[in-house]
Design a protein that fits this description.
Layout lengths: L19 H16 L7 H15 L10 H4 L2 H10 L2 H5 L2 H16 L6 H13 L3 H4 L6 H16 L3 H14 L4 H15 L7 H17 L29 H10 L5 H4 L13 H21 L20 H12 L9 H23 L18 H4 L8 H4 L1 H4 L4 H48 L1
Helix pairs in contact: 1-7, 1-21, 6-9, 7-16, 9-10, 9-15, 10-12, 11-12, 11-15, 15-16, 17-21
Length: 454
């Protein structure tokens, strides 16, 4: 028999998503994720071609990208082949993965978070994260982020074999994540006092090179030898490999207007609520540690920004700890004391997070072709200039933003943001009222004591 959970809320409320509200919002969100346009392009095109070539000819080849993630799309490929729409069906691979992961994550949260928190994590991932944009493509970051996340959840439950299997599989799909895996291994070693966990990054390293040997014919051939971008006005452009200054890469990853994590995953800078279970806190910190490993690697990579892609492509995983932190704070019991400034900051971060989700699935890179034309000379405009970044361009280019897909924006704002925004606003007003009453009482007491002394 499951013991009562003290984290289920002090007032018995499910928060802003009580009753049918959760299912209505989630249903609308998932429908939107399936009906908006999906595409196979960029790096995703090479992955799709590798999958098709293998299933049609039996030859497993890929110039540089891992085939682990694409191979898992095999059932969809065959379904599309049978229907006569191979590409059109396979492109739904990431959104199918995402839906399955939501189910598994919700189950993993059952005994470590309140029902309100679980529902908020799911809703925030669907509506207020970078995932809505990413699942419409055939890129690799979705599989890696979800596999590693589920692996960390399983490790936290002492399901060691399954946890490491998921993490290793996700990491082999993105070889640059080996440092992140080392960070997970270090935390697991500290937690369990077992050195065997330190073998995980070694296994990832070996398997990525075994894949290179199978797919590219050489144990050490990655396909990135001599890889570099075009030469532009930027001083470090055109240089190959890990040629970008680390400090500049670090600042760009966090602060650039078109790719910065402070804008695209603001919840990651918000700590979980005080009542969060210790296991969920460990999961949250371990996800951040894995992401930190990615930052260490990509900060020096010449293409730290992930190419012509909406948002910080390589750092999708940060959306998950960001949503966990926001959910725990939004689901805090109403009788918990919270400073007004903290509630105001929570409301702002939540609103910005919802804008990220809305922007990614509705606007994407609309109106920003100028950044990829003329030999990529103006590419950096979309990464560093506020009004040319994907997040803020729709607010200044009304002509590009005024097209039918903006009707979906009304659904996002009216149904979901109002559910959470109204709740947060009410909490803010309650905190402000409580604070003002306390200050008034303090002032009244001080004046009374002063008058008595006289």
């Amino acid at each position: 028999m499951k013991a009562p959970d003290a984290r289920r809320g002090g007032d018995g409320s499910d928060g802003p998503l009580a009753g049918a509200s959760f299912y209505i919002a989630l249903g609308i969100g998932l429908i939107i994720l399936f009906v908006v346009p999906h595409q196979i392009g960029g790096d995703g095109e090479f992955r799709f071609q590798s999958l098709s070539r293998f299933l049609e000819t039996g030859k497993l080849e890929s110039a540089r990208y891992s085939v682990v993630g694409p191979l898992l799309a095999t059932p969809l490929w065959f379904l599309g082949k049978a229907l006569g729409y191979t590409r059109e069906v396979t492109v739904f691979y990431n959104v199918v993965l995402f839906v399955l992961a939501l189910v598994l994550l919700s189950r993993e949260l059952e005994d470590i978070a309140s029902r309100a928190t679980r529902r908020l994590v799911v809703i925030l991932l669907v509506f207020a994260s970078m995932f809505p944009n990413h699942v419409t493509t055939f890129y690799s970051e979705v599989f890696t982020s979800l596999a590693v996340t589920l692996g960390i959840f399983w490790l936290a439950r002492d399901k060691t074999l399954g946890g490491w299997a998921a993490i290793v599989l996700g990491a082999v799909n993105t070889p640059a994540s080996v440092i992140g895996v080392a960070a997970i291994a270090a935390r697991m070693t500290w937690r369990t006092k077992r050195l065997a966990h330190l073998a995980a990054p070694i296994v990832v390293f070996l398997l990525t090179h075994v894949e290179s040997w199978i797919v590219r014919g050489s144990f050490f051939h990655t396909g990135y030898e001599g890889d570099a971008g075009p030469k532009t006005a930027l001083p470090y452009s055109g240089l190959p490999g890990f040629s970008y200054p680390f400090a500049l890469g670090l600042m760009a990853i966090f602060l650039s207007f078109g790719k910065g994590l402070i804008f695209f995953a603001p919840g990651m800078f918000f700590p979980p609520a005080a009542g969060t279970s210790e296991r969920l806190r460990w999961i949250h910190r371990t996800l951040l540690a894995f992401g930190a490993g990615l930052i260490v690697v990509y900060a020096r990579w010449w293409a730290w920004y992930g190419g012509s892609f909406w948002g910080p492509r390589f750092f999708l995983v940060f959306s998950i700890p960001a949503c966990i932190a926001l959910a725990t704070n939004l689901a805090e019991p109403r009788n918990e004391r919270r400073a007004p400034w903290r509630t105001l900051l929570l409301a702002f971060v939540t609103l910005l997070s919802f804008w990220v989700g809305v922007n990614g699935i509705i606007f994407d890179q609309t109106g920003l072709r100028i950044c990829t034309e003329n030999g990529w000379e103006l590419e950096a405009f979309c990464y560093y200039v506020p009004e040319m970044s994907v997040l803020w361009h729709p607010l200044v280019d009304f002509e590009s933003a005024s097209y039918p897909k903006t009707r979906v924006l009304a659904v996002f704002i009216c149904i979901v943001w109002m559910l959470i925004g109204v709740w947060t606003a009410r909490d803010l007003l309650a905190s402000l009222g409580c604070s003002l009453r306390e200050r008034a009482a303090t002032i009244r007491t001080a004046l009374t004591d002063l008058l008595r002394q006289r």
